[in-house]
Specification:
By secondary structure, the protein is of the alpha+beta class. It has helices at about 5-15, 35-40; strands spanning about 45-50, 55-60, 65, 70, 75-80, 85-90, 90-95. The radius of gyration is 30 Å and the shape is rod-shaped. The mean pLDDT is about 80.
Length: about 100
């Protein structure tokens, strides 16, 4: 092996073995504000089933059977009818429909 090839091989091994060398093309690390990290987007409630015993309704939301007045995450169940559930959180109202309405 020539001296130039040995030098190139040694330089290549030196570059590959040093773990402390940062990639100059890598983007700079960005730190997220704590408020953004804490505020995780809560998934929308999912209505799966509405049942009635003849006097009142119950709904299966996110896998939990609830009745009027119960809490679903940050929401409170305001009303349950045959095809929909109304949830409320402060001034925010959310209507969950059991069936998609289609118009032809």
């Amino acid at each position: 092996m020539t001296a130039i090839c040995k030098f190139k091989l040694a330089a290549l091994l030196l570059l590959c073995s040093s773990g402390s060398v940062a990639d100059p093309t890598a983007p700079e690390a960005q730190i997220e504000p704590e408020s953004a990290a804490v505020q995780a987007a809560e998934p929308a409630p999912r209505l799966s089933l509405i049942r009635s015993d003849g006097r009142s309704y119950q709904a299966l939301i996110n896998g939990v059977l609830v009745k009027t007045g119960d809490k679903v995450g940050p929401y409170q169940v305001q009303s349950i009818s045959a095809g929909r559930v109304i949830l409320q959180q402060g001034e925010k109202r959310l209507q969950l429909n059991l069936f998609n309405s289609t118009t032809k």
